[in-house]
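To illustrate the input format used throughout this study, we show a single complete record. The first block contains the structure-token representation of the backbone; no residue identities are included at this stage. The design step must infer an amino acid for every position from geometry alone.
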């Protein structure tokens, strides 16, 4: 089974690829594409894979623009954090979806559905134009602030003021660039989905703002040690597997 991933979040793309190969070891990930432009160029030059996993909102537009620009006859599974109104549209077109953050059970269920429908999938093109118009008009934008807690106060805090999120004893904390510290109710997976490409999930414990990074240094076992440009006592380590993704993200 040849699978194509369209996803602009490096950590999410890596996680999806790893999970797919765990569930379906015989699968082959033919490409991981980060944008509408890259995906259109890929489809124009390469044969279509058996199955496509695609995020909805990419850095340069909605993924439906890809399917309007290129005739796609293969099934698409949308990976989304958006509201139920959009998911109803996907059902009407016979396309499966995965809500972020996904897990192994979700991927297993999706691949099982694909296999069950494989023989009966119609070759006709779904009405992506209708979906594009729907999402263009009604898509809920990612929030620009999060609600944080300080004693008895609930404060809206702009995301761009946050230097780092970290998890400690199952509680999510934030530190701002001006050294204020708060807690919030969301877990790290939820914050990663909300914050977008401005932040990188260094490991399960830390989610770091690009603007907060002073430097990275080589660490034991080809890992990376990250130093922030704010006072921060905890050691942030990027694994060997994620180091290339981190360096690509840091260079942007």
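Output of the design step:
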């Amino acid at each position: 089974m040849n699978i194509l991933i369209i996803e602009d979040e490096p950590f999410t793309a890596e996680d999806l690829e790893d999970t797919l190969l765990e569930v379906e070891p015989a699968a082959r990930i033919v490409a991981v594409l980060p944008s509408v432009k890259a995906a259109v160029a890929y489809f124009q030059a390469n044969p279509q894979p058996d199955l496509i996993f695609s995020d909805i909102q990419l850095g340069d537009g909605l993924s439906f623009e890809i399917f309007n620009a290129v005739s796609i006859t293969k099934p698409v599974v949308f990976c989304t954090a958006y509201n139920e109104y959009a998911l109803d549209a996907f059902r009407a077109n016979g396309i499966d979806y995965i809500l972020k953050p996904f897990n192994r059970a979700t991927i297993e269920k999706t691949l099982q559905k694909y296999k069950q429908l494989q023989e009966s999938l119609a070759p006709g093109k779904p009405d992506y134009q209708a979906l594009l118009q729907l999402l263009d008009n009604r898509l809920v934008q990612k929030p620009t602030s999060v609600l944080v807690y300080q004693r008895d106060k609930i404060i809206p805090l702009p995301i761009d003021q946050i230097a780092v999120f970290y998890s400690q004893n199952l509680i999510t904390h934030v530190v701002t660039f001006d050294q204020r510290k708060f807690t919030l109710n969301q877990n790290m997976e939820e914050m990663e989905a909300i914050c977008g490409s401005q932040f990188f999930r260094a490991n399960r414990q830390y989610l770091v703002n690009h603007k907060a990074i002073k430097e990275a240094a080589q660490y034991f076992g080809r890992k990376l040690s990250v130093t922030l440009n704010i006072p921060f006592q905890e050691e942030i380590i990027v694994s060997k597997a994620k180091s290339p993704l981190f360096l690509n993200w840091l260079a942007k």
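Structural context for interpreting the output: The mean pLDDT is 83. The chain has eight helices and 17 strands.
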